[in-house]
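User: Please predict structures.

Assistant: First:
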Amino acid sequence: MNNIYKKQNEDEVLLLLFSARKLYNRASSLNTVSWCVALASALFSNNDYVKDNLGQYMVILPAAFTLVTLFLQKKVNSTIQLGASTKELIDRTLFGFNVSGEIGQHTKEQLRDWAIKEKRKDPDGYAIAVKNTGKDKPKGVKNWYEGRIGKKGNEAIFQCQKENAWYDKEICRVHAIICWSLLSVFVAGVILTYWNLTFKDFILGIFGYMSLIIKVIADLKQYNERKRYAACEDVITETVENSSELKTDTLKKLQGYIYKRRETNYIPFNFIHTILAKKLHEEWEEKGKFE
């Protein structure tokens, strides 16, 4: 039997959970800054006052914003990779899966060392996080997986995997609605602004939006990647639910897609999780009554 719900509150696992949360929060903050830089590029590069003062050097501004956006995106990518590997180590530890060798580009020793660094940088935050659950304020990492009464072994693992997908799918859905709405407003604004300009002026104007265009394209690409892996998870989940036998190899395959989904750089805004957290906890508990 995998004693997941007890083991998840052991010191080492709580330390890794704290580290993973810090990493994803940091990635989210960096992602938000990169969005702000991209929006600032669009606003300043098409501002008449800025154009008049910079003159022929105007092209430098969007180029500089673009370089900053690309740099921030690289930092987001590396932070997400580290966070995803940490979460994978947590799950493999709890589920009794193999944790030897590297997880992504990191060894388990490197992930543990990084977690210790996160604790040292924020000891007060760590003390609160390991004491509180996700329902408390501020939110903690205790009782990470809520579990189902009577679920043991592979059934318990499968429930944890479904729980992970449940929260992620809803949060990403809301994030996608917000992003597509903002993109629609942006496209409409560009069309209205440059509708009567010459082709040359249109191209020069669009160049100021380069950072934002790069950001939107990257986000849409990652969104499609995330949807693809989530769809693979759904197929395996449906197969397992319709099968009379729950095999460990099938759960490991499902875990592989969960890890790939976590590695994507499609990062929902933090405020979405804050708003939806309580509602999703209650819905998951209600859902469990019928399983």
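Second:
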Amino acid sequence: MDMYAKRVEIIANVAILCSAVLGSSILVANYFHRTPYPYAPTPSVLSEGSHIQLAEIDWRNARHTLLFCLSTTCYACSENADVYRRIITATQRTSSTRIIAIVPQDIATGRGFLSDINIPISEILSLPLYSLGVRRTPALILLDHTGTVMHIWSGSFSTQTASEVLSLLQ
């Protein structure tokens, strides 16, 4: 009987060892070969020099147009509120720059979001951001009077970003 118990113990130990190796290899394989989440930010496919056509906007109404592409679900969109306010305050001194917020949510939700983070943008459009070629929020898009993209900023912004935007608007 001792011999039988010893064999069962060896077989059980080998089975446990095989299970541990198999489980570990599955975890390691998933770690190195995982697919990105569908909501993971990807670089913008919009590029400088490309043209944006939106029926709602007549680009000729201003020398420059600055699009703020934001989302209510974007943490960085809220975190960058101070930078947005700095840009908006400085551009309000001149009437040659038009500022428009573009949100993927409905306009009422977008307006509430901007109010919550104290961003004074009155012109808001509800559009899927991918229709503009924007794949990451927040994004700032500077356009000229023809709707041609002059510069794009995306991700977290700093005071240096605000200074860069304002220098291009002069």
